[in-house]
C-alpha cells in the first residue's frame, strides 16, 4: 500500500507531473497553429468550443512539433536538461550536445512529440478533472442544503451518496495517469535523448585524445624533471665526497647544480608550451639537439658521468619534431646511465643519419648497480612511445656486460 501511495503521490511522481505539464504548455503554440488550419477546414466559427476541432488541432500540431525538434538541434540539449532535473534520469545516460546527424535528430523529434503529446493530455486532464472531482465530492452537501441546485432532482439518493467516491476515484485516476505517463517518459528518455553510436564514438575519440595529452605530459615531465633531479642528486653526492680534498670540483658541481635547476624551471614552461602547441610570446622553446645537445652533455659530465659523443650529422638540418624528440631520448638515456650505470661510468653516444633515419645509440658497461629500478620505471617506456609516435623503433637491453639503447627515428614522419 505504501509503495502504491508513493508511486501515485511521491516526490518523483510530482516532479514528473510538472515535466508533463511543461510539455502541455509547450504544445499550446502548436495547437493554436493547428486551429488556424483546422478551423477553415471544418468551417468551424468557434474552434475553442468544438471538442472535435480541438482534438484535430492537437493532432495537427504534433507533427509540427516534431518538425521543429528536427530542424533545431538545440532541442535535445534543452530536453535533456529538463529530463535530468525533473524526471530523475541519471546525467550520464543523456546527451547534452545539440543533435547532429539523422539518427540523433530523428530520436529528438520522436521524444519531443512524445513529451508534448503526453504532456498535452495530462495537462488537459489536470485542468478538467479536479474541478469535476470537487463537484462530485461536494454533491451530497449541495443535495442536503440546496436540492434545487441539482440538475436532476429525480436522481436516486444512493447515486448522490456515492458521488464523493466517484470524485476521489477521478483524482486517483488522474494521479495514476500522470504517474504512468511520467514513468514511461523517464524510461524512454535514455533511448531517445541518450547518446547515439556517433555520439559515443565522438566521446571515445575525445577521451582518447585527452589520454594522449595526459600521457605526453607525463613523458615530458618525467624526462625533463627526472633527468634534472638525477643529475642534481649525483652532482651533490660527488661534491660531498670531495668537499675537503677538491674545492675546485665542488665549485664546478655547485655551478652545474645551479644551471641545471634554473634550466629545468624554464623547461617546465616549455613542456606545457609543447602540449599546448602554441607560440605565445614568452614561452621558452622546447629543447632540441641543435639547440642544447652540448649543454646537455656538459651538465651530465658535471655529475661524474664520462660521456664520449660522436655526432655524424648536422643537427640543425633535422626536422624540428625529430630534433625535439631525439633530445628527450638522449636525455633519458643519459639519465638511465646516471641512475643505474655505477660510479664514474663511461657512456658512448653516437648520433648519425642512415637510410633516411636518425640513429641514436647509447652504450655503457654494466656497473655494480642494477640497470633497472625495483618495480620498473617509465623511462624506457617513454622512449619507446616517442619512437613509435614518429614511426620509429626503440631497442634496449644488456648483452656481454654492456647496456645498449638504440633508437631509429624516420626523418619523413611527424606525430
Key phrases:
5 strands; alpha+beta; 2 domains; 415 residues; single chain; Sig_transdc_His_kin_sub3_dim/P; histidine kinase; Heat Shock Protein 90; 11 helices; kinase; phosphoprotein; transmembrane
Plain-language structure description:
This is histidine kinase. It comes from Streptomyces fuscus. The chain is α+β, with helices and mostly antiparallel strands and 415 residues long. The protein folds into two domains: 2-195, no CATH class; 202-410, Histidine kinase-like ATPase, C-terminal domain (Heat Shock Protein 90), CATH 3.30.565. Helix content is 66%, strand content 10%. The chain is built from eleven helices and five strands; from the N terminus they run H-H-H-H-H-H-H-H-H-E-H-E-E-H-E-E. It has helices at residues 2-9, 11-42, 51-71, 74-86, 102-145, 157-193, 197-241, 247-276, 289-301, 320-340, 379-389, and strands at 306-312, 346-354, 357-365, 393-399, 402-410. Strands 1-2-3-5-4 form a five-stranded mixed sheet. The longest helix has 45 residues, at 197-241. The protein is elongated.
Instruction: Quote the distance from N terminus to C terminus.
Output: 65 Å
Sequence of strands across the biggest β-sheet: 1-2-3-5-4
Strand portion = 5-15%
The average pLDDT value, as a whole number, equals 81
CATH homology-level superfamily of the largest domain: Histidine kinase-like ATPase, C-terminal domain
GO molecular function, one term: kinase activity
Enzyme class: transferase
Domain Signal transduction histidine kinase subgroup 3 dimerisation and phosphoacceptor: 214-279
Keywords: ATP-binding, Kinase, Membrane, Nucleotide-binding, Phosphoprotein, Transferase, Transmembrane, Transmembrane helix, Two-component regulatory system
Amino acid at each position: 500500500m505504501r509503495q502504491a501511495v508513493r508511486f501515485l503521490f511521491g516526490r518523483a511522481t510530482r516532479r514528473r507531473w510538472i515535466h508533463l505539464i511543461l510539455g502541455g504548455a509547450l504544445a499550446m503554440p502548436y495547437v493554436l497553429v493547428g486551429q488556424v488550419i483546422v478551423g477553415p477546414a471544418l468551417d468551424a466559427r468557434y474552434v475553442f468550443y468544438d471538442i472535435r476541432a480541438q482534438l484535430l488541432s492537437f493532432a495537427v500540431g504534433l507533427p509540427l512539433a516534431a518538425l521543429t525538434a528536427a530542424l533545431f538541434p538545440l532541442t535535445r540539449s534543452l530536453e535533456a536538461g529538463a529530463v535530468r532535473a525533473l524526471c530523475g534520469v541519471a546525467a550520464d545516460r543523456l546527451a547534452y550536445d545539440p543533435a547532429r546527424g539523422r539518427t540523433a535528430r530523428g530520436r529528438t523529434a520522436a521524444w519531443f512529440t512524445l513529451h508534448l503529446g503526453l504532456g498535452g493530455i495530462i495537462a488537459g486532464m489536470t485542468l478538467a478533472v479536479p474541478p469535476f472531482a470537487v463537484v462530485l465530492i461536494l454533491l451530497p452537501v449541495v443535495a442536503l442544503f440546496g436540492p434545487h441546485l441539482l440538475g436532476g432532482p429525480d436522481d436516486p439518493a444512493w447515486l448522490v451518496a456515492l458521488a464523493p467516491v466517484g470524485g476521489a476515484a477521478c483524482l486517483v485516476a488522474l494521479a495514476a495517469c500522470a504517474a504512468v505517463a511520467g514513468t514511461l517518459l523517464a524510461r524512454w528518455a535514455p533511448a531517445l535523448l541518450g547518446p547515439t553510436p556517433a555520439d559515443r564514438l565522438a566521446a571515445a575519440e575525445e577521451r582518447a585524445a585527452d589520454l594522449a595529452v595526459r600521457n605526453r605530459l607525463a613523458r615530458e615531465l618525467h624526462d625533463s624533471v627526472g633527468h634534472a633531479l638525477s643529475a642534481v642528486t649525483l652532482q651533490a653526492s660527488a661534491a660531498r665526497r670531495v668537499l675537503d680534498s677538491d674545492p675546485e670540483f665542488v665549485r664546478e658541481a655547485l655551478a652545474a647544480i645551479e644551471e641545471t635547476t634554473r634550466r629545468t624551471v624554464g623547461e617546465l614552461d616549455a613542456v606545457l608550451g609543447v602540449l599546448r602547441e602554441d607560440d605565445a610570446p614568452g614561452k621558452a622553446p622546447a629543447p632540441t639537439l641543435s639547440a642544447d645537445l652540448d649543454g646537455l652533455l656538459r651538465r651530465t659530465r658535471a655529475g661524474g658521468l664520462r660521456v664520449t659523443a660522436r655526432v655524424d650529422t648536422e643537427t640543425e638540418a633535422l626536422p624540428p619534431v625529430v630534433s625535439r624528440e631525439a633530445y628527450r631520448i638522449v636525455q633519458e638515456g643519459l639519465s638511465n646511465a646516471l641512475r643505474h650505470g655505477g660510479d664514474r661510468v663511461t657512456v658512448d653516444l653516437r648520433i648519425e643519419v642512415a637510410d633516411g633515419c636518425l640513429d641514436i645509440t647509447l652504450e655503457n658497461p654494466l656497473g655494480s648497480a642494477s640497470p633497472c629500478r625495483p618495480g620498473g620505471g617509465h623511462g624506457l617506456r617513454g622512449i619507446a612511445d616517442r619512437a613509435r609516435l614518429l614511426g620509429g623503433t626503440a631497442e634496449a637491453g644488456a648483452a656481454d656486460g654492456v647496456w645498449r639503447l638504440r633508437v631509429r627515428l624516420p626523418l619523413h614522419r611527424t606525430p
